[in-house]
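User: Fold this; tokens only.

Assistant: Input:
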Amino acid sequence: TPLMLFARYQQDLDIFNKVFMKGQKFNHANKEGQTALTYAIMGNTTKVGLLLIGAGASGAVKDKDGNNMSYYLISNYKNKQDYSDKLKMLFTFGFSHNQLQANGNTLYHVAVRFKNTEVINELASDKKIDINALNEDGLSPLHLAASSDEDGSLLKLLISLGADKTELTEFGESVYELASENELLKANNIDLSFLK
């Protein structure tokens, strides 16, 4: 909808107020389950997010896959300040950051998917999010990192934060075995002995 596009890109609050703030359904979702606030989280400023929340937009909505605002905050990460400001904004309005996302993924799973070490470090301060949790596929964030890491940095970071390298997948595969099959790690000749 036009409101969603404005929510993502329009930063002039006067224009936003004049054009869109009267008679809008702020929690209307598109076919993906995304709302105007979702779009603001993805690409706009905290001020626009606050404007939408103040007008009745809910930070508690989930998309059709089961992802909440945290997923969009991580997948559209710009910088630490933007992330922190938007997260504080959502917390102010009762948002829960430690909810499971699609497929039973924790935010660690999401951050690993997007290879975002800054977010992983931020998440470490929230002890309510289990770094060793298994998603619906029986994979921990460390298992995902073993399959997608390019240089070993994600693996080392997760282990330093308490990820269990002895946890096996539901198929009995170890983190070391998954990493050994990772073509990127092979191509970069990464020593995996730290996973044994």
